[in-house]
Amino acid sequence: SNPLHRQVHQDMQQPLCHYFIASSHNTYLSGDQLLSQSRAEMYACVLQAGCRCVEVDCWDGPDGEPVVHHGYTLTSKILFRDVAETINKYAFIKNEFPVILSIENHCSIQQQKKIAQYLKEIFGDKLDLSSVSTGDPRQLPSPQDLKGKILVKV
After folding, report:
1. Contact 24, 53 (CB under 8 A)
2. 18, 69, 70, 106: the active-site residue
3. Which of 9, 28, 55, 113 sits at a 20 to 30 Å CA gap from 39?
4. Average pLDDT for residues 126-152, to the nearest whole number?
5. How many other C-beta atoms lie within 10 A of the C-beta of residue 42?
6. Inter-helix orientation angle 80-90/41-48, to 10°
């Protein structure tokens, strides 16, 4: 057998849209999507398991603090800030390729501003604030270009 065939080579220089991305749905839930607990620790688990796109369902919470939960159900609520801090802590422990936050936004403008503030404060330089035109997917940056970056998809 050819020894070259024993090596795995992953070309991570292509535009991001050329790749399948391991994604999580309702990442914050520890069980079923109607009654279970929302837990920030679930983000730690999936990120360390190789997931690169996590879902964050954001809703207006009390005292001007946005919360994460599965809307219109009996799932418990957790603070958006706690979710962002957990993602920041675990995003790149086992994998340096970018993490996409898939934010489902149900918040008022006031609490959206709070979310933006937390994203900037907690992720700092990891937060990718470059503007990407979706007109030509060949112009998207590669996973290699985005190592260590947090991308936001709303």
Report:
1. yes
2. 69
3. 113
4. 85
5. 20
6. 30
What CA–CA distances, in Å, run from 14 to 3, 11, 130, 143?
A: 26, 7, 18, 7
Residue 71 corresponds to which amino acid? G
**pLDDT tens by residue, 19-33:** 999 999 988 888 877
Q: Is the pLDDT of residue 134 over 70?
A: no
**Could you confirm whether 9 is annotated as catalytic?**
no
In this structure, what is the dihedral angle of CA atoms 125, 126, 130, 135, given to the nearest 10 degrees? 180
Give the pLDDT of residue 8: 61
Q: Where does the chain show beta strands of DSSP type E?
A: 53-59, 67-68, 78-79, 99-105, 150-153
Residue labelled with tokens 């675990």: 90
Q: Distance between CA atoms of 143 and 16, rounded to whole angstroms?
A: 6
Q: Which of 5, 9, 18, 25 is catalytic?
A: 25
Q: What is the pTM of this model?
A: 0.89
pLDDT tens for residues 59-74?
A: 999 999 999 998 888 8
69 is catalytic: yes
What would the CATH number be for the domain defined by 22-129+143-152? 3.20.20.190
